[in-house]
Specification:
This protein is mostly helical. It contains 3 helices and 2 strands; from the N terminus they run H-H-E-E-H. A two-stranded antiparallel ribbon has the order 1-2. The termini are far apart. The relative contact order is 0.04. The model has no long low-confidence stretch (mean pLDDT 81).
Length: 116
């Protein structure tokens, strides 16, 4: 099969004919355009899914670290409050005659009572 060589006059003729209709014929490679469009969409979807997964992973790590720190702080505060209570004397119920004393003093009283 012999290909016909396009001459400059053929190009002008084609353009003139297309200009009569208000359009110009484009030789589009639909397969190539479709392939690259689908490839681009695929890559975009993979990137979006990756970003969402990374966000969820970092959010979980941050929440876990914050939870551990707050639990430790709460535990340390409760322990400090209990230690203050154990080391001090005070009134629990004055009408019933219930008081609290430091634990060391309470142990000494119990030892002294058992020796007598």
């Amino acid at each position: 099969m012999v290909q016909k060589k396009e001459t400059p006059s053929d190009k002008f003729t084609e353009f003139d004919e297309a200009a009569d209709y208000g359009v110009m014929y484009d030789k589009l490679n639909v397969k190539n355009i479709t392939f690259w469009t689908l490839m681009g969409l695929g890559v975009l979807i993979v990137v979006i899914v990756g970003v969402i997964a990374l966000y969820n992973f970092n959010k979980f790590q941050f929440q876990e670290a914050a939870s551990m720190q707050s639990e430790f702080r709460d535990y340390a505060q409760v322990r400090a409050d209990r230690q203050v209570h154990l080391d001090s004397a005070g009134i629990i119920d004055e009408e019933a005659g219930v008081y609290h004393i430091p634990i060391d003093s309470a142990m000494d009283l119990i030892i002294n009572e058992s020796e007598q």
